[in-house]
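During the practical work, I worked with a single protein chain and the tokens that describe its fold, as given directly below.
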Amino acid sequence: MSQFRHELKYVVSQAQIPLLCSRIRPYMMLDPNADERGFYNIRSLYFDDFINSSYYENENGNDPREKFRVRIYNHSAERIALECKRKEKGMTLKTSCPLSDEEAYSLMQCSTAIREEQPALLRKMYLQMKTKLLRPVTIVEYERIPYVCRDGNVRVTFDTNITSSSAVKCFFSSEIPKRPVMPPGWQLMEVKFDEFLPDYIYKALNLGNLQQTAYSKYYLCRRFAQKGE
């Protein structure tokens, strides 16, 4: 069952990632979904309305706020998910449901056909496409190094090589045109947990100079398009 979780984000240097991994490795295990290289690829197609509400709500820190995305892993359409992330009172709730190829393409083409047998999240997405004119706006892609811990249901991830693409129609293509959105040598660390972050993990992650950020990867990717950078 989905529940609200804490989600803290930090900008880290490429050089800090091996150090942080070595410090948390005694307490956390690598997520089994990571491949032999220790990471997996994530590609997400984000949606926004015609006045870019999700973008500006993130920029302004609106509470609550939601955004929708379609997500695949390792460039494969074998597992497609529709996800909704809701930010409320500093906490994050993620709900998701699987999508068929047909359903994913209908979202990409803004074709809506609400049926009672569909998952509740998909019906909600279709309704917002009708009422708010949601449409696909950007692709966010990156490689994730994931660590997990049962205590506190903690998840620490290092998202590297974060890129954006406006080629939304090519979402399922193996290769798409894309560009980096972080300054050279800088990546993103996310720390997610339920009710508490164990003290030993907090101490392992505390380098004393990490820069916390409130902006999402979606916001960072869309900022280039919004400001013409």
